[in-house]
């Protein structure tokens, strides 16, 4: 009985570990991303690549308009409306801003504690993993996600989403989910797994750049940087450091307010692993 | 009967044989109205079953849910039906403990309502699962794989709470019915009724020892049930308040939900009271003074609920949590505002009509009011679930939704399911407690109510076993 409570309290503050905290090293990796919105041109290539890589169903126009689409990565488009403070009437002319939004791989994920069957959990890579086989579809996780990046299989798509020749392009490394299962961005966990296996086969440690996510690979402007935050030499860690963004805090203390890095809804203490670098317009400079 | 509100709760000269005869008569020879009610219930249930079969085969898509609105009518109906189940406990357990004997003619159907609305409520979390066929995974059964459910999830707590409450309230209903089942057994000639009542009456003969054990058991279950009822609806409230969603993350939700549960349950008691009184000809037992008391109780609880509702708005408003405040403003002025103001009108304003003696005496008007009160409470549940999900933290995902036909069909089916269970109950089991009505008549006639406790002590003496043993030991005159 004492071990039961002992484990409970020992794991209590497993969340909220910062990079500086030695306990943070419990993770094998801490996969993270940095997305430069200054480079993002809103082309949706990342989203398309995600569809191809992760066997996402194309649900058709009607279901898309009913907001039952399955895109794990969506490029959100925002306009600087005059009513929102930008008094410049030409703001529409200057184009929109884009925010690629995918699962933020929170370390203190709101979706995790509410799943009745424990189908979603924090894995050893710091990812917010989803076990499709275990999911019973209570959808509590999706309701509790402040980013709205969990997608539910409202129908069985295996019959109609990939008509005859298209089924040949399905990725064999990842399952095709059936109706009633919650799914989400996994940071291409199948690629992470393959890279780890390759590294183990070659008897070496995983190097920065061994793992590339589909969205990162496809991005024409290389706005997406992906890697292991625990590796001090990785590009993603350098991006985080350069913009003085830290895990394990609800408020970033930056020496220079001009630094562009931020996390979405940091105040919710979700410990998300994705930072965005704010877009800077030429008119702002 | 010029002033029916101010006559006695029950006619004191009513003969015990007449009580038996009236209640037993109500269980036989269904009238046309009964068959019509059964047919309507079965029709509604069929729509629900058809919807569920379709949903089982196709998926949750036709329910009208979308990426922002993963919950809708299923969860609000779940909260609604759980709420309905609380009045039975209130009426029988709490009023039993405080010796309010006016509850006696009406508590049986309220308890049946508790059990059946729990059976209805329990269906919804199951039906709303994406993979219904795996619902047993929320049960912590031992398996070779060593996989357990997640005990931090409020949905998990729901599963425990509802199961415990369902078992306890079914037990409460059954134990309270044993003396009546014996009467049914003694009056049943033959056939399945005799076999059923013989089995269920558990060999009840009505001797002193059985009565004493019965009283103790009944009281123990009643005491057990009251905190359980509070916990069940608190846990249902925690489904929402434990999440981080603005509009749900409110600490006043548990008491607010409990008050709302008692409220909707009381309103449902009034509706069923009037229906049974009419359908079963229970005018002599379900009398105006009792109805009057139920109406006053409903009014008081309505005021408690209104107060907690206002507190919730105030805490959101003055807490100045921007997303939560936006949800509140959107409820009052957004696309769901007609339903929100409908909830305010039916739930908070309409109960004031119960202050009028004239309305409390008008059966038809009261029936309509009680249905409207419950409509308001149904809207309240819907207004908790849906507008919050329309907004949330991320403005990009803001949208509205309207439930699809499958959801409406299953919603309708739930009323059919509840109605069918209730209608079958009133014909198979006595829906008025015969022995307690007899007690009530006896008390009203013979007990001087100036000293209630002394009278109760006289009626149910607490016999010290040692003293009883001493009395039985013959005094042999030894020193």
From TrEMBL, chain A:
Domain 4Fe-4S ferredoxin-type: 31-62
Gene3D superfamilies: 3.30.70.20
Keyword annotations from UniProtKB, A to Z: 4Fe-4S, Iron, Iron-sulfur, Metal-binding
The UniProt record lists the keyword Signal: no
CDD domains reported for this sequence: PsrB
GO molecular function: 4 iron, 4 sulfur cluster binding; metal ion binding
Transcription keyword on record: no
Species of the source: Varunaivibrio sulfuroxidans
SUPFAM superfamilies: 4Fe-4S ferredoxins
PROSITE patterns referenced in this protein's UniProt entry, alphabetically: 4FE4S_FER_2 (PS51379)
One Pfam assignment: Fer4_7
PANTHER family: PROTEIN NRFC, PROTEIN NRFC HOMOLOG
Superkingdom per UniProt: Bacteria
Name of the protein in question: Molybdopterin-containing oxidoreductase family iron-sulfur binding subunit
From TrEMBL, chain B:
Major localisation: membrane
Gene Ontology, cellular component aspect: plasma membrane
Localization annotation: Cell membrane
Superkingdom as given in the UniProt entry: Bacteria
Keyword Transmembrane helix set for record: yes
Membrane topology, as annotated: Multi-pass membrane protein
Name of the protein: Molybdopterin-containing oxidoreductase family membrane subunit
Organism: Varunaivibrio sulfuroxidans
């Amino acid at each position: 009985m004492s071990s039961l409570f002992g484990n409970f309290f020992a794991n209590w503050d497993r969340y909220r570990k910062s990079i500086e905290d030695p306990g943070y090293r419990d993770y094998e990796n801490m996969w993270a991303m940095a997305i430069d919105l200054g480079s993002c041109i809103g082309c949706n290539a990342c989203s398309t690549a995600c569809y191809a890589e992760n066997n996402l169903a194309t649900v058709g126009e009607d279901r898309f308009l009913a907001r039952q689409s399955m895109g794990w990565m969506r490029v959100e488009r925002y306009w600087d409306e005059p009513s929102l403070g930008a008094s410049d009437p030409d703001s529409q002319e200057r184009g929109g801003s884009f925010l690629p939004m995918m699962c933020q791989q929170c370390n203190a994920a709101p979706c995790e504690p509410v799943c009745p069957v424990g189908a979603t959990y924090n894995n050893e890579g710091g990812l917010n993993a989803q076990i499709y086989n275990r999911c019973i579809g209570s959808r509590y996780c999706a309701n509790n996600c402040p980013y709205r990046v969990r997608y539910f299989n409202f129908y069985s798509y295996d019959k109609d989403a990939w008509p005859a020749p298209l089924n040949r392009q399905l990725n064999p490394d990842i399952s095709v989910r059936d109706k009633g299962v919650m799914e989400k961005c996994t940071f291409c966990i199948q690629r992470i797994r393959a890279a780890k296996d390759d590294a183990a086969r070659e008897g070496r440690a995983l190097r920065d750049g061994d793992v590339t996510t589909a969205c990162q690979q496809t991005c024409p402007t290389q706005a997406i940087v992906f890697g292991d935050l625990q590796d001090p030499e990785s590009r993603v860690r350098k991006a985080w450091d350069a913009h003085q963004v830290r895990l394990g805090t609800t408020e970033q203390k930056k020496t220079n307010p001009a630094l562009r890095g931020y996390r979405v809804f940091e105040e919710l203490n979700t410990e998300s692993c994705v930072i965005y670098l704010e877009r800077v317009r030429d008119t702002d400079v | 009967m010029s002033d029916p509100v101010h006559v006695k709760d029950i006619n004191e000269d009513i003969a015990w044989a007449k009580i038996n005869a009236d209640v037993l008569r109500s269980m036989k020879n269904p009238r046309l109205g009964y068959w019509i009610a059964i047919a309507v219930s079965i029709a509604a249930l069929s729509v629900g079953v058809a919807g569920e079969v379709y949903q089982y085969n196709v998926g949750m898509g036709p329910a009208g849910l979308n990426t922002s609105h993963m919950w809708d009518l299923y969860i609000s109906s779940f909260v609604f039906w759980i709420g309905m189940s609380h009045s039975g406990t209130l009426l029988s357990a709490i009023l039993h403990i405080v010796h309010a004997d006016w509850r006696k003619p009406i508590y049986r159907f309220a308890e049946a309502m508790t059990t059946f609305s729990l059976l209805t409520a329990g269906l919804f979390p199951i039906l709303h699962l994406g993979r219904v066929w795996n619902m047993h995974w929320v049960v912590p059964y031992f398996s070779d794989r060593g996989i357990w459910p997640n005990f931090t999830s409020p949905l998990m707590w729901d599963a425990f709470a509802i199961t415990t409450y369902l078992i306890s309230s079914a037990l409460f209903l059954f134990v309270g019915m044993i003396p009546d089942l014996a009467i049914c057994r003694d009056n049943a000639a033959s056939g399945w009724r005799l076999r059923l009542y013989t089995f269920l009456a558990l060999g009840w003969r009505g001797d002193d020892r059985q009565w004493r054990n019965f009283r103790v058991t009944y009281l123990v279950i009643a005491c057990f049930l009251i905190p359980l009822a509070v916990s069940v609806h608190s846990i249902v409230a925690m489904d929402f308040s434990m999440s981080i969603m603005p509009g749900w993350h409110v600490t006043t939700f548990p008491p607010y939900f409990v008050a709302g549960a008692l409220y909707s349950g009381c309103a449902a008691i009034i509706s069923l009271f009037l229906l049974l009184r009419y359908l079963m000809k229970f005018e002599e037992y379900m009398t105006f003074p009792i109805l009057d008391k139920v109406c006053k109780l409903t009014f008081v609880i309505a005021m408690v609920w209104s107060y907690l509702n206002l507190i919730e708005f105030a805490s959101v408003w003055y807490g100045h949590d921007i997303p939560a405040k936006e949800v509140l403003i959107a409820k009052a002025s957004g696309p769901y505002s007609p339903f929100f103001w409908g909830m305010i009108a039916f739930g908070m304003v309409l109960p004031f009509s119960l202050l009028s003696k004239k309305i409390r005496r008008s059966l038809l008007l009261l029936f309509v009011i009680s249905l409207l009160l419950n409509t308001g409470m149904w809207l309240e549940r819907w207004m908790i679930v849906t507008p919050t999900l329309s907004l949330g933290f991320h403005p990009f995902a803001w949208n509205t939704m309207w439930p699809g036909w499958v959801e409406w069909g299953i919603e309708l089916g739930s009323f059919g399911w509840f109605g069918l269970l209730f209608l079958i109950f009133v014909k198979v089991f006595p829906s008025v407690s015969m022995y307690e009505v007899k007690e009530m008549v006896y008390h009203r006639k013979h007990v001087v109510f100036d000293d209630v406790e002394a009278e109760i002590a006289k009626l149910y003496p607490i016999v010290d076993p040692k003293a009883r043993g001493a009395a039985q030991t013959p005094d042999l005159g030894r020193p």
